[in-house]
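Re: the 287-residue chain
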Amino acid sequence: MEAEILRHGKNLPRGIRMRRETCCGVDADVVEIRTACAAAAVGKPKGTYITLDIGQVLHRERDSFSRTANAIATHLKGLLALPPSLPVLVAGLGNREITPDSLGPLTADHIFVTRHMLREMPRQFGRFRPVSAVIPGVLGTSGLETAEAVRAFQQKVEAAAVIAVDAIAARDTQRLCSTVQLSDTGLCPGSGIGNHRTALNEETVGVPVIAVGVPTVTDAATMAAELFRRTGAHPDEDALRAVSSGMIVTAGDMDRRVREVSRVLAFGINLALQPELTLDDLTDLIY
């Protein structure tokens, strides 16, 4: 949404740069918030926000999976900027039992983990980056804040960076599972639905946190207002929100969407962390 808000603004605050890129045939909006004043003006932390259009994956366009995975990998490598020998922890956030919130765990299922291989067979696997994956669960089932759990795992594996994958909320229903946002600012689990938890960022974890978010839900009031506007009406969104009781909605086929998007995210992350491998290599190694 940062890109959309800024694109429709008449004047960008000083300290913000924005551009549109195409990588591997996938369009992306890149917003760089460079100063504290600019961050305060738009209500977002300083850092880089990259929003990729991945709708072609759901439409199963030709070569869409490989193009999207490689585009995600290219942008992730730019955000990580780590030597290939340094370890990385991938955290799949969310609740596997709730379909729209299962994106993180499903993505973590497909991560090519190598830390144990390097430790047991360094000669055969020495060219790989040490990668670990964890599904920390949610506060209601574990009793742990996500940031606490990820911090503990990060310290154990001595990761130089964390890639946190989570489902997020969208204002526009057309964005559900059709965009992916990457940022180097971390994230705040639950904030998209008003359930703010401890932030997951460099300050709380101790190392850089790259956030990978895909919108899977929207709130009912926002959706209703959007539908009214499409018919030419001018709804009172605050009034709609007052009577919607905080209801959260998602798409009827979200189970299919989450499965497909989690796979392309995982392959993009794997390609970013192990650049010597190809999609075919990863298919053989993971499945």
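The domain at 2-275 is CATH 3.40.50.1450 (Rossmann fold).
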